[in-house]
Amino acid sequence: MLDSFISRKACNTYILYNEAKEAILVDPGFNVGNKLIEHIQKIDVKVVAILLTHAHYDHIAGLEDVVNLFPNAKVYISEDEVELLDNPNLNLSRFGDDWLNKSLTFLPKNLMKLSDGEVFEEASYQIKMIKTPFHTQGSACFYVESENILFSGDTLFYTTIGRTDLPTGSNRLVESSLSKLLKLPLSTKVYPGHGVMTSLERESKYNAYLRNI
């Protein structure tokens, strides 16, 4: 079962859970007014794993709050992205905004550093991390084959892709990163970090960045 929560900056947080209510949380965005935590408690799940597609502040602002509530949850991230977690200059929290008035320096104890293509299991789901480094140096997507879904973070959106002009971003890695996604079944449903759900089939037809590979 898949649930979602939209926080500030229109950041999508996804909650994938099984019949036992064991949950995998993807990109814990802003917890303004404790709304994210209240949503997790409302659907009555136990978070056993947290997946971080990348470490920009709008995708990790609620991480510490979720870990405090579920201290045994493992936090999965690309090995190349770890340094952004506690570096406010790289995760952009130093610059702040109307909803974030602190620098983010939280580094979870149960941090699982993943290499490209690594497969792991949580809540009875097999999950594959696909490194797509261009939005940040360690940006990644998480593919759950049994559910035919891809959590794409800021790598792939409806009709477009993430920007490359922020710290550690790289325009030259766009094509090699996106080409990895085109190896997945075109029927794969794509759940991005911002905006509406799409599919690889749709993006392969209408997204110029994929169509031109």
What does this protein look like?
The protein has 213 residues and is of the alpha/beta class. The protein is 20% helix and 28% strand. The chain has seven helices and twelve strands. It has helices spanning 35-42, 57-60, 63-69, 82-85, 174-181, 200-206, 208-211, and strands spanning 2-7, 11-17, 22-26, 46-51, 74-78, 111-114, 119-122, 125-131, 140-144, 149-153, 189-192, 198-199. The strands form two sheets. Strands 1-2-3-4-5-6 form a six-stranded mixed sheet, covered by helices on one side. A hairpin with a 2-residue loop joins β7 and β8 (125-131). The longest helix has 8 residues, at 35-42. It is globular, with a radius of gyration of 16 Å. The mean pLDDT is 96.
List keywords for this structure.
single chain, 213 residues, alpha/beta, 6-stranded mixed sheet
